[in-house]
C-alpha cells in the first residue's frame, strides 16, 4: 500500500498568451475521405464519424468526395453573399457598440459558415432554437437587416420593444426561437418542439443549438435523453468554436473524446463536420434534416470551428489566448474558402468579389442608416417604458395595471 | 354532479380537457401507463393513447423544457412534477424560460403550459416530499400560481389553467387528495365523498383564476390562507368560538386584493396561515398587502402562523405543522390585542 498524495487534473489548452499557436494535436482528415452513410444508417454503424471530420473542400478549392454536390452554383454564390453580409454586419455593429449606439454585441467572425450553410438545409416552417451566435440563420433566411439592427439599437422600431439584450432576436416566421441568456435551456426546448411536431403528424422539424462550453449544462443532457427516448425529429448542433469566453473547449468534455462522441451513449448518430467548410456543413445538415423528416430520429452534429473574434464586446481575448491564433487555425477562413471554390468553378473572380464586397457594405450601411433614423441607445426615439408592463401576461392583471399607473405610463 | 376525491376531480379535469382539445397533451414521470403515483392521470393513456399521455424520463428540467417547446409549437402541455420538492432541477426552465417567453419575444412566442405539483406535508414525507415552494414561484413575474382546497376548485382551477394563455403552476395539497383534514393528525380523515365540497359538476366548467373565495363568513377576524390550512383555520375557529372569516385565496398570483381589502377592512383583524417556512414566505407578501390596503382599519398587528424556518422534519412533522393549537393561540392573541 502506498500513501502517495492524490492530485486533481485541471485541463489546460495547448497554448496561452506568450506562446506559439499549437494545433499539432488537431487531426485534419483529407477532404472527401469520410464516407456518407444512408439516412437510415444505424447509429452503431457510424461511430467512427464522431471522431473524424467531414470535409468537402480540398486545399485547391475543389469539392470532393461523397458529401459534395449538395448545392447548386447559384446557392453557393448566395451562401457566399450571406457570409459576407454577416461579416460586414458584425463589423458595423461592433463599431456601433464602440460608438455607444448600443450596449453590447457579439460577433460571428470565423464561424459564419455554420449557421448560413445550415439554414439552406432547412425548409421554411422548421424551427431553430438558437444561441446568440447564429444570426446567420436569419440573414440566410432573408430576415431584414434593418430589423435586426432595430433590435440591437433597442429603438422605437425594435420588434421586441427594448426588452431583450442586443442580438437576442426572435422571429417565429423565420424559424428563430426567442433567445435566452441562460445557457443551454433552448436545447431541450427544441426537442419538445420536435416532439409536438411528431405528435401532430406534421412535416416540420426542429434544430437545437448549443456552444461547446454549454454542453456541460444539465439541459444538454436533458435534451439528449429526451431526443433519444422519443426519437424526436430534431437536429442537435454543438458549435465547437474552441472557446467559452476564456475557457477552452477541453474543459467541457474533460479533455477526452469529442463532443460528437457524446451522442453514442444515447444511441444518437453523431457526425463531426468542418464548420469552416460551407459545403460540408450544408451536406451534413441536409443529411440530418432528411433523417429527421423520414422518421429516423435525431442527429448530433459537432461543428468544428474557431471563434476568431472576442466572445462579446465585454471580452478581451488577448488576456487568455494568443492574439493571432486564428491565423494558424487549420480549417482556415470560411469566407475565403468558399470564395476560392467559386473561383475554381469559374463562376467567381477577385474582381467580382471586390465589387460584391463593396455592394454588400453599401447595403449594410444603408440598413444601418435607416435603423439609426429610428433611434439608438444614445439618440431617440426609444420604445415607451409602458411596454415593460405589457406582454408579461396575455391580459394585464390588476397589480401590474396599478404599478404601470404608479410609474406614470 | 358526483362526489369525488380531489384526485378523481383532477383526473376528470384532464379527461374533459383532453376530450375537448386535441392540443392538450399530458406527460411526466409515471403518469402514462401507471396513471401517476397519486393516480391523478389514471386512465388517460388508455383512453387517449400514448401520443397524448406518456411517461417521461426522470429529468424535471427536461420535462418542463420539452413542455415549453411543445407550447411554443402550439400545444397545451400539462406536465406533472411528481412532488413539488422536485421542481428545483426545473426551476430555471420555469422562471427564466416559461415565465418570460411571451414578454421577451413581445408575443411572437407564447407558453400556455400547466405544471402540476403535489405540495405540502402532513404525510410523513420528510424534507424532500413535503415542501411548499409557493413563495419561490409567486416572486416570478409571468407565472400564475394556484392552489385548490377542495375537489370542485381543483377541477375548475385546473381547467382554467389549461385554458389560460400563460404558464400556470397548480400546487395540489396532497394532504387533501383523499379528504379534508383539520390538522388533528390523530383523527380519521373525513372522506371527500361524505363532504359537500366533494361535489363536482360533470363536464366542463372553470373556476376563474385570480379570484378568492370566502370559505367561511365571519366578523371577528379575517384569515388569509389556502390549501390544507383552510381546514386547520376552520378547526381553530370551531375550537375557540371566534367568528373567523376564512378567505381561501385559491390563486396566489395574481392575488385577489379586492377580496382581502373588503374582508380585513370590515373585521379589522388579520391572521395569515401557511405551511411553508415563515421567513420571506408568501405570508410576508400578504402581510404587506394588508398593511398597505387596510392600515387604518387594523385593530391588531397582522399575525402569521407558518411552518418553522427549518427543513420539514420527518419524525417531528407534527411539531412543524401549523396545527389548530398554534392557530387558535394566534386567534386569541389577535382578539385580545
Radius of gyration of chain A: 22 Å
CATH superfamily label of chain A: Thiamin diphosphate (ThDP)-binding fold, Pyr/PP domains
Major β-sheet strand ordering of chain A: 1-2-3-7-6
User: Distance between the terminal alpha carbons of chain A, to the nearest Å?
Assistant: 75 Å
Overall 3D form of chain A: globular
Mean pLDDT across the residues of chain A is 97
Count of distinct structural domains of chain A: 1
Number of β-strand runs of chain A: 7
Low-confidence region ranges of chain A: none
Q: Structural class of the secondary elements of chain A? A: alpha/beta
Structural class of chain B: alpha/beta
CATH topology of chain A: Rossmann fold
CATH class of chain A: Alpha Beta
Provide the CATH architecture of the largest domain in chain B: 3-Layer(aba) Sandwich
Domain Dehydrogenase E1 component (chain A): 83-375
Protein name (chain A): 2-oxoisovalerate dehydrogenase subunit alpha
Keywords (chain A): Oxidoreductase, Thiamine pyrophosphate
InterPro entries (chain A): Alpha-ketoacid_DH_E1_comp (IPR050771), DH_E1 (IPR001017), Oxoisoval_DH_suAlpha_N_dom (IPR022593), THDP-binding (IPR029061)
Description of the structure:
Chain B: InterPro entries: THDP-binding, Transketo_C/PFOR_II, Transketolase-like_Pyr-bd, Transketolase_C. Chain B: This is 3-methyl-2-oxobutanoate dehydrogenase (2-methylpropanoyl-transferring). The complex is a heterodimer of chains A (409) and B (337). With 409 residues, chain A is of the alpha/beta class. In chain A, 35% of the residues lie in helices and 8% in strands. Chain A is built from eleven helices and seven strands. Chain A has helices at 73-98, 112-119, 135-140, 145-153, 185-200, 218-230, 278-293, 325-328, 334-345, 350-373, 398-407, and strands spanning 127-129, 206-211, 234-240, 243-244, 247-248, 270-274, 299-304. A five-stranded parallel sheet of chain A has the order 1-2-3-7-6, sandwiched between helices. In chain A, helix 1 (73-98) runs antiparallel to helix 9. The longest helix of chain A is centred in the first third of the chain and has 26 residues, at 73-98. Chain A is globular and about 70 Å long. In chain A, 51% of the residues are buried. The model of chain A has no long low-confidence stretch (mean pLDDT 97). Chain B is of the alpha/beta class and 337 residues long. Chain B folds into two domains: 2-200, Rossmann fold, CATH 3.40.50.970; 213-336, 3-Layer(aba) Sandwich (Rossmann fold), CATH 3.40.50. Chain B has twelve helices and 14 strands. Chain B has helices at 6-20, 44-48, 60-73, 91-98, 101-104, 134-138, 151-163, 229-240, 257-267, 282-294, 317-320, 324-336; strands at residues 2-3, 24-28, 53-55, 76-80, 114-119, 144-146, 168-173, 199-200, 213-216, 221-225, 244-248, 251-253, 270-277, 303-307. Chain B has a seven-stranded mixed sheet, with helices on both faces. In chain B, helix 1 runs parallel beside helix 7 (151-163). The model of chain B has no long low-confidence stretch (mean pLDDT 97). Chains A and B meet through helix 5 and helix 6 of A and helix 3, helix 4 and helix 5 of B.
